[in-house]
Design goal:
2 copies of one chain form a homodimer. By secondary structure, chain A is an alpha+beta fold. Chain A is built from 11 helices and 11 strands. In chain A, helix 3 (101-117) links the parallel strand 3 and strand 4 (122-129). At the A-B interface, helix 1, strand 1, strand 2, helix 2 and strand 3 of A face helix 1, strand 1, strand 2, helix 2 and strand 3 of B.
């Protein structure tokens, strides 16, 4: 007689690495086929999915903790920009044969740290094998009062355009990763190089600003495919134009050094993507309150331009000349 | 002056193939970074994700319409077993270079047909490139009254065990796919072969039975990794044992023919998986009502055994001997 059905390898993998991350009561300790989320009364659930693929969004030999964190944070960044509080996430983990127990242990540890730090527990998931690169598809859920999601479409003429943090670091970090010689060409000191590389590896989603964006922004989105293209999308949905003074776009010290060393890098900065900052439009009367909330949250906030009637996102240099970009937005296709 | 930010290839792909599937108002026509779902008052959102990977869950040259449908249906099947009404889904589509416009067109058409048929619209998604096989990760959402999800853990001694449809067809279909000679060995006529192949390609999730399961089942799950292993999991979480008479497990005519031709195939039938049927436990007093609901829904329902005190899922032959299985459950690991 079979006294008990033995656990499969997949069951053991889930129990060992991922059950500790399933702290939400609706996840049922990953013991069921699905989870439940009960949004607070009067709330919507905000739904988002983004996948990261080895060789595309990260390098196969990146530390597994950081791959895990990036996979979650690119989704958290969208929840932040939409003004939603994180509620939980589902994980589809598609693993090549090369992944071993040490790798999984580190991956789960990194994921657990961020799930805890951002209050976004694992609700469920699926693990599969692939003959291709590691792929991590996360679907993240947030909640907010019904109808209060900050959309792309709310920008109005006369408003200001703001961004959080600094722009372009991750795109420069990716170039450095591919071409280590660039460190010397751009005259970066080791600390500056490390900063750019780190910004590529580990996004800093602005979830601390979510509530303030919901209260004070008329439109917002996260900058993932480059500021030029993303702001262009926001303008298109809102039916407005934006005029941006490039000199006001906030760059890190490392970013400024790189652009000073090689002026054409400003295109990489503005169009390269992977920033995971927020671009938003704000009515002039709401600027003070938003700035105060950002300061309280420890998030840098910079006004970079204005919204007007018209179409498109327009970027101007010091002399007032419009910049033209070869490819305004990162695209896989 | 740049008059408007040009659309990227990814934007065009989304607009052309996937926007028509985003019929839910909360999907905002895929024009935003996230979607909103407003569950009916007093309802939970049920969350599920399952990915399908080329070369693992389907063959790379399967018709794209059917790959799309399988990717959605494996998730719909879980919503059905949990008693939830489909509400929508997120799609992460990871595409190899070989995928072209014709492929995408057929994929989106198949996905759209099922989104419509099952009342489960596309809420959002993400498209990426990969150097590996096509991967489709779907996260599906359902709703049901708060606390009413049918869990694995509710089975009680004295109850009956039921399954929907027929068991083993897809696992036999997969064997046929890999070994076309088996058609002759198993003495299948062409119609029987076609039936098994079709059952592997296109699951038939039992969403028509979701409400009745919520009303009448004490525990349920979908059979995706094989009846033996899946029922074993249900028993483990419920803290009960199940005794199943193998002769009562419903087989299709093709399945019966194959097993008659090669008796050892009963192990494939019971442990091979990919069934996407429902196994559930039901109190004796609720059997009549559930059977009536199943008949009204056009879903075959068969009683296959009983729940008792103890542990494990036990399968007995006509002589009352317990069957032992080499691998009770499909596992990728």
């Amino acid at each position: 007689m079979v006294e008990e059905t033995p656990q499969s390898g997949e069951d053991r993998l889930i129990a060992r690495y991922f059950r500790p991350l399933a702290t939400h009561p609706g996840a049922l300790g990953l013991s069921d086929d699905a989870a439940t989320l009960t949004p607070p009364p009067g709330c919507d659930v905000v739904l988002k999915t983004d996948a990261v693929v080895g060789g595309v969004h990260f390098f196969a030999d990146d530390p597994p903790e950081l791959i895990a964190k990036k996979a979650l944070r690119v989704n958290l960044s969208d929840l932040a920009a939409k003004g939603a509080s994180p509620a939980g996430f589902l994980l589809s983990l598609v693993l090549p044969e090369t992944v071993d127990a040490n790798w999984l242990d580190a991956f789960a540890r990194g994921l657990g740290e961020d799930a805890h730090a951002y209050g976004c527990p694992l609700m469920g998931g699926d693990t599969d094998r692939t003959s291709g690169p590691l792929t991590v598809a996360i679907a993240a859920f947030g909640t907010l009062p019904t109808g209060s999601m900050v959309r792309r479409g709310g920008a109005r003429p006369g408003e200001r355009v703001i961004v959080t943090g600094t722009i372009g670091d991750a795109a420069l970090g990716l170039q450095l990763r591919r071409d280590p010689q660039a460190t010397a060409r751009w005259r970066l000191d080791p600390r500056q190089s490390a900063h750019l590389l780190e910004r590529y590896l580990l996004p800093q989603p602005r979830n601390a600003l979510a509530l303030a964006l919901r209260q004070h922004a008329s439109a917002a989105m996260d900058v993932s495919d480059g500021l030029v293209g993303d702001l262009g999308k926001l303008c298109a949905v809102s039916g407005v134009r934006a005029d941006i003074e490039v000199v006001r776009v906030p760059l890190s010290e490392a970013g400024r050094t790189a652009v000073a060393g090689e002026a054409s890098l400003i295109e990489t900065v503005l169009t390269g993507g992977d920033d995971y900052e927020v671009v938003a439009t704000v009515a002039p009367a709401a600027m003070t309150a938003l700035a105060a909330a950002a300061e309280a949250a420890g998030v840098a906030l910079t006004e970079i331009g204005t919204v007007a009637e018209g179409r498109g996102a327009h970027f101007f240099d010091r002399a007032g000349n419009a910049l033209l970009f070869k490819q305004p937005s990162f695209s896989h296709f």
